[in-house]
Design brief:
About 30% of the residues lie in helices and about 20% in strands. It has eight helices and 14 strands. It has helices at about 25-35, 55, 60-65, 75-80, 85-90, 95-100, 170-180, 200-210; strands at about 1-5, 5, 10, 15-20, 45-50, 70-75, 110, 115-120, 125-130, 135-140, 145-150, 155, 160, 190. It has a five-stranded mixed sheet with strand order 3-4-5-6-7. The protein has a five-stranded mixed sheet with strand order 8-9-10-11-14, with no helix packed on it. It has a two-stranded antiparallel sheet with strand order 1-2. The chain binds zinc ion (2 copies).
Length: about 210
């Protein structure tokens, strides 16, 4: 689903689940696309945020309020969003710290922890993959061989590449997280800002990790 500034993912089934929520104001866009699928916003039971950047969580509050869905996010990014101004200006100002300071944290968030399994897509496992942000998560379905990577990976000229240097907090840590992904059996990779890899996801991850 195209929301403001991001590709979100709607997983239909017994517990319709939205992955990421776009910038603030994405609710109307979501409603239109749901209507085209004969669904409504109240069908959504869960919103999972891959990380705490504003293009992923800006729309969370309005969509959660309209749907009654619960919101899941890794606690390290909830902590990051509580950053104080004096921590932002300490030392060399990092873009990630400034973004976190300017981003409003959602309320009533449930912690999504490494190893949690969501009851969609035959079991969708939460992988804590820090680096882009401290609380970045990926979502993996072993039965579908499908991996949602958020902003941990990009695609440049068709190639799967490292995350954006400017917006990534800790690149060595991101590299370690990518090495962990390369151990998974993956066919399809879904990105937040690029078209999907539909075949050979594992080879692309291994090539990047090495
Ligand atoms: Zn993003
Ligand atoms: Zn991001």
């Amino acid at each position: 689903m195209r929301l403001i500034g991001v590709n979100a993912f709607l997983i239909l089934g017994d517990e319709p689940t939205l992955v990421d929520a776009g910038h603030r104001g994405s609710g109307a866009m979501l409603r239109r696309q749901l209507a085209a699928l004969d669904h409504q916003v109240t069908d959504i039971t869960r919103i999972v945020c891959t990380h705490g950047h504003p293009d992923h969580i800006g729309g969370v509050q309005e969509i959660a309020r309209a749907s009654g869905a619960k919101v899941l996010m890794h606690p390290a990014d909830m902590e990051r969003l509580r950053i104080r101004f004096r921590e932002v200006i300490r030392g060399r100002p990092a873009p990630g710290a400034i973004i976190a300071y300017l981003t409003q944290a959602p309320t009533d968030v449930i912690a999504a922890q490494d190893g949690d399994v969501l009851p969609v897509l035959g079991g969708l496992r939460v992988l804590h993959t820090p680096g882009h942000t401290p609380g970045s998560i990926c979502l993996y379905s072993a039965t579908r061989r499908l991996l949602i990577v958020g902003d941990l990976l990009q695609r440049m000229r068709g190639q799967v590449t490292l995350p954006n240097y400017f917006f990534t907090d800790d690149m060595p840590l991101a590299r370690r997280s990518i090495a962990r992904l390369a151990e998974l059996d993956v066919e399809t990779i879904l990105f937040s800002h690029y078209p999907p890899v539909r075949q050979g996801g594992r080879d692309a991850l291994r090539a990047l990790a090495s």
